[in-house]
Design a protein that fits this description.
Layout: E1 8-13, H1 20-31, E2 33-37, H2 39-51, H3 58-66, H4 81-90, H5 94-109, E3 117-122, H6 125-129, E4 135-140, H7 143-155, H8 163-179, E5 192-195, H9 201-218
Parallel strand pairs: 1-3, 1-4, 2-3, 4-5
This protein binds cytidine-5'-monophosphate.
Residues 16, 38-39, 42-43, 84, 87-88, 91, 122-125, 173, 176-177 line the site of cytidine-5'-monophosphate (C5P).
Length: 222
């Protein structure tokens, strides 16, 4: 695989609804990095499974991922709670992880020239996808805060959803993601822990920016 030299690589892992996506987006914009929400790829595959169950096999998934464009991942349908739950089930399948792995590597190591680097967030980014990232973060928040944030997001699309349902589904996903054999969610020793429970979006952004700027300054990049 071709790898661009001298790019900034940021790797983020986090449990569901911890605020990692919002943070990763603002950081990517600030440093002009290509951003990839890797959960969306698993959600896209889960969507294919639910929509086309008869076609759903490894060959079909591979062809869909090979022709996947980043815009395909912005479809609002991927945000639904049942797709999130299905994503945490299909993401345990080794052949699916392998296909997604190759797709992610290209984004991480070979972003288009107009970007200064890449920023990926997911569950296994810091130790599996971009183990040599320049910056590694583990973003978390307490379960009630996460459920409440996701509840507010989902309520916009589905007026009937309740907080209790969202809490249950996040607990379920945490269980799946933390306990699975293959690529479980974990905090690596070299990742910085950021707890967003009592921080608003701006405060989170500034906290991470300070850490990044300090290192970039030391290395003469700023
Ligand atoms: O981040 P998001 O909640 O959209 O991810 C949906 C699901 O996809 C997660 O619960 C997890 O099971 C799976 N996932 C994963 N590895 C990643 C990103 C997401 O297994 N790198």
């Amino acid at each position: 695989m071709k790898k661009r030299k001298n790019i900034i690589k940021i790797a983020i892992d986090s449990p569901a609804a911890a605020g990692a996506g919002t943070l990763a987006k603002s950081i990517s914009k600030h440093y002009n990095l290509l951003y990839l929400d890797t959960g969306k790829i698993y959600r896209f595959i889960a969507y294919l499974k639910l929509k086309f169950p008869k076609k759903f096999n490894q060959k079909y998934i591979k062809s869909k991922i090979n022709s996947l464009k980043i815009n395909d991942l912005s479809n609002k349908i991927l945000l639904s709670d049942n797709i999130g739950t299905e994503a945490s089930i299909i993401s345990k399948i080794p052949s699916i992880r392998k296909t997604v792995h190759s797709f992610q590597l290209n984004y991480a190591y070979n972003p288009p020239k107009k970007f200064n680097g890449s920023c990926l967030d997911g569950r296994d980014i810091t130790y599996n996808i971009v183990p040599d990232a320049d910056f590694k973060f583990f973003i978390t928040a307490n379960i009630k805060t996460r459920a409440n944030r996701r509840y507010k997001e989902l309520k916009v699309f589905n007026k009937k959803i309740t907080y209790e349902e969202v809490l249950k589904s996040i607990k379920n996903r945490d269980k799946n993601d933390l306990n699975r054999q293959i690529s479980p969610l974990k905090k690596t020793k070299d990742s910085l822990l950021i707890n967003t429970t009592n921080l608003n979006k701006r405060a989170c952004f500034l906290k991470i920016k300070k850490i990044i700027d300090r290192k970039l300054k030391i290395n003469g990049n700023l």
